[in-house]
């Protein structure tokens, strides 16, 4: 009896660990996202869920920069704004369909990433934090001052998404579009994190000098992470414009960048399931706690400090051990087999 | 034109005061204290609170009242900086850089929205304005009070320069910035010196906050955000970690902004300043006075 009591927390923890590492977790998450509208499908619920999905996409994108590569980006909302504005301007002023703006947005995000990341990533990583902070302000103020961006009133009348003649601009259509896009985005970011490039990112995060000594071109690899984050942010911006059909500069303040960062940090930097849950938590919580709105950001700030002091890895930490990919495993086996043959005669 | 230069010098001396705190903390423990701009905001609000309580007395005394208020605000923000260091930064000394930066963002957030809880989201109007009779000086119109604020700023900076270069505390600070471990072995109480640095830097930011309240006449809980960025820009222009550089950088940025906005319009002021930061980091990341620092592994 006593042993049972002693071991049960440990067993529960082991079970929880196994659950956390489960490969099918992503499928479960996707199923939840697909089935959620069958539980409640009011316009309000759908809009909250769509916003949560967008937030997941942003958090996963920022996770590439902050979580994988360990670079602090405090102006992530700028890329989000670039995506929303570029697609919004092309769609409303020039009548492009929203899908056609995707390549242009990607190019714009990459260019912005290079302009900001190019000079700053050569310096100490703290500089990136503050330069991105300034960049976020530059983009917001510029959008506020130019006429093509509609000034303070922004852009309105952004059309919904049409795919092969199917109108996806209704709440349900938009929600499922977002589910598909965001699922791909999450999957893409996670796979990127497990790729060769992803390993280089994590190496740089753990020890930049050692990474450099091992022959990693740290500057280019860091720039790749920053640009990757930029693309994710820009694409999320398109969906944001499609959801709200109107965008204006106040949507892209530092508060947004900070909230996305909060989602990544709380969930667990570098951990895809953690970041996804963190994003859902941060975006849905305000809907549940309307009265506490005034205290919310204050508590978020305190929470950031507490998490950093007591649980730096976040609530759902990333796996510390690399899992061997199937291809690598096969190669290793073949190699061992060949070696075995050579030795036998 | 002289008017522009004066305005630039005036705003520049605010930037310099805030940049000093930034650069001191960075110089000693290599920490970008994002909450520094919010300590400036705190200073402005403390000054506002004291002036509102003292009410009639303050308006009668005018400028002298502002000086006393400034001293109180400096004490309060200095203590706040001390607390911040003790609670948020000291437990993380030696932690990865990213964690410390995130903590600093959290501290900034907590200060901003904590102040919003206390003072409300709307801007407050400062009870004491520095709007005396303007005097013509070399073709520019400035008030005596404005000029005296510049003098105060200069005195504070001179005091700091003396503190860093001429006292034992200053020597300890410089030793820690070179090598904290070696400084510890030499019998320096590293924690105490770092705490003192935070106190001084935060107090200077608080002084700048009260000055800005009196100068602009309006304060709000997010006022520290942009000034923090500007102060960092100023510190980078002068050479971060360098006390004289921060003063020079602050004045340079003030002048650049003042002249730049005259040409391209006031709504572009912040864009102009931050673009300058990016350009400066590209061309001369060590700043005007900074020397090349090799990263220690």
Automatic annotation (TrEMBL), chain A:
Pfam families: BPD_transp_2 (PF02653). Coiled coil: none annotated. GO terms for molecular function: branched-chain amino acid transmembrane transporter activity. InterPro entries: ABC_transp_permease, LivM-like. It is found in: Cell membrane. The chain crosses the membrane at residues 25-46, 52-82, 94-116, 173-192, 223-242, 254-285, 297-316. GO terms for cellular component: plasma membrane. Its main location: membrane. It comes from the Bacteria. This is Branched-chain amino acid ABC transporter permease.
From TrEMBL, chain B:
One of its GO terms (biological process) is D-alanine transmembrane transport. Pfam families: BPD_transp_2. The chain crosses the membrane at residues 12-32, 39-57, 63-84, 96-115, 144-164, 193-215, 221-240, 271-290. GO terms for cellular component: plasma membrane. Its main location: membrane. The keyword Transmembrane applies. It is found in: Cell membrane. The keyword Cytoplasm does not apply. GO terms for molecular function: L-isoleucine transmembrane transporter activity; L-leucine transmembrane transporter activity; L-phenylalanine transmembrane transporter activity; L-valine transmembrane transporter activity. It comes from the Bacteria. CDD domains: TM_PBP1_LivH_like (cd06582). It is a multi-pass membrane protein. InterPro entries: ABC_transp_permease, BCAA_transport_permease. Keywords: Amino-acid transport, Cell inner membrane, Cell membrane, Membrane, Transmembrane, Transmembrane helix, Transport. Belongs to the binding-protein-dependent transport system permease family. LivHM subfamily. This is Branched-chain amino acid ABC transporter permease. It comes from Micromonospora musae. The lineage of its organism: Bacteria, Bacillati, Actinomycetota, Actinomycetes, Micromonosporales.
């Amino acid at each position: 009896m006593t042993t049972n009591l002693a071991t049960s927390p440990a067993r529960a923890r082991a079970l929880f660990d196994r659950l956390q590492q489960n490969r099918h977790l992503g499928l479960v998450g996707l199923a939840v996202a697909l089935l959620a509208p069958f539980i409640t499908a009011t316009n309000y619920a759908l809009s909250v869920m769509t916003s949560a999905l967008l937030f997941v996409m942003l958090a996963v994108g920022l996770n590439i920069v902050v979580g994988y590569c360990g670079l602090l980006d405090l102006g992530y909302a700028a890329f989000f704004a670039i995506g929303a504005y570029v697609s919004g301007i092309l769609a409303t002023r020039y009548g492009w369909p929203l899908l056609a703006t995707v390549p242009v947005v990607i190019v714009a995000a990459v260019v912005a990433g290079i302009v900001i990341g190019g000079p700053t990533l050569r310096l100490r990583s703290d500089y990136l934090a503050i330069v991105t902070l300034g960049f976020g302000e530059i983009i917001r103020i510029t959008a506020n001052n130019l006429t093509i961006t509609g000034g303070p009133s922004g852009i309105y009348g952004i059309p919904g998404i049409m795919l092969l003649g199917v109108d996806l601009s209704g709440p349900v259509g938009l929600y499922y579009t977002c589910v598909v896009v965001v699922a791909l985005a999450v999957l893409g970011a996670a796979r990127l994190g497990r790729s060769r490039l992803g390993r280089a990112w994590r190496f740089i995060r753990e020890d930049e000098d050692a990474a450099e000594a091992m022959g990693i071109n740290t500057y280019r690899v860091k720039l790749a992470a920053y640009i990757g984050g930029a693309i994710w942010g820009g694409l999320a911006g398109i969906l944001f414009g499609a959801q709200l059909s109107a965008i204006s500069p106040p949507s892209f303040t530092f508060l947004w960048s900070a909230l996305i960062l909060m989602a990544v940090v709380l969930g667990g930097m570098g951990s895809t399931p953690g970041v996804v849950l963190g994003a859902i938590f941060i975006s849905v919580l305000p809907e549940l706690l309307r009265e506490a709105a005034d205290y919310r950001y204050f508590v978020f700030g305190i929470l950031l400090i507490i998490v950093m002091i007591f649980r730096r890895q976040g609530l759902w930490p990333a796996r510390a051990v690399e899992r061997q990919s199937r291809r690598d495993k096969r190669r290793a086996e073949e190699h061992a087999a060949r070696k075995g043959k050579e030795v036998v005669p | 034109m002289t008017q522009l230069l004066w305005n630039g010098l005036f705003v520049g001396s605010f930037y310099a005061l805030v940049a000093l705190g930034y650069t001191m903390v960075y110089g000693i423990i290599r920490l970008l204290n994002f909450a520094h701009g919010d300590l400036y905001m705190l200073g402005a609000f403390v000054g506002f609170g004291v002036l509102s309580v003292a009410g009639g007395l303050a308006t009668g005394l005018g400028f002298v009242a502002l000086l006393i208020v400034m001293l109180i605000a400096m004490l309060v923000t200095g203590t706040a900086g001390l607390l911040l260091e003790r609670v948020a930064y000291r437990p993380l000394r030696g932690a990865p850089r990213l964690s410390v930066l995130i903590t600093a963002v959290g501290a900034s957030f907590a200060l901003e929205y904590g102040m919003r809880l206390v003072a409300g989201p709307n801007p407050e109007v400062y009870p004491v304005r520095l709007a005396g009779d303007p005097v013509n000086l070399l073709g520019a119109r400035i008030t005596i009070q404005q000029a005296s604020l510049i003098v105060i700023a200069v005195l504070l900076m001179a005091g700091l320069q003396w503190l860093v270069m001429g006292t034992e505390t200053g020597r300890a600070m410089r030793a820690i910035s070179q090598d904290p471990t070696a400084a510890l072995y030499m019998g320096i109480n590293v924690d105490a010196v770092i705490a003192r640095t935070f106190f001084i830097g935060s107090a200077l930011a608080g002084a700048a906050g009260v000055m800005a309240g009196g100068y602009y006449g309006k304060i709000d809980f997010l006022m520290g955000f942009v000034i923090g960025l500007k102060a960092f820009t100023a510190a980078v222009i002068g050479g971060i970690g360098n006390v004289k550089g921060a003063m020079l950088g602050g004045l340079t940025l003030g002048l650049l902004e003042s002249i730049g906005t005259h040409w391209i319009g006031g709504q572009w002021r912040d864009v102009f300043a931050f673009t300058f930061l990016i350009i400066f980091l590209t061309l001369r990341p060590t700043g005007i006075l900074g020397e090349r620092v090799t990263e220690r592994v």
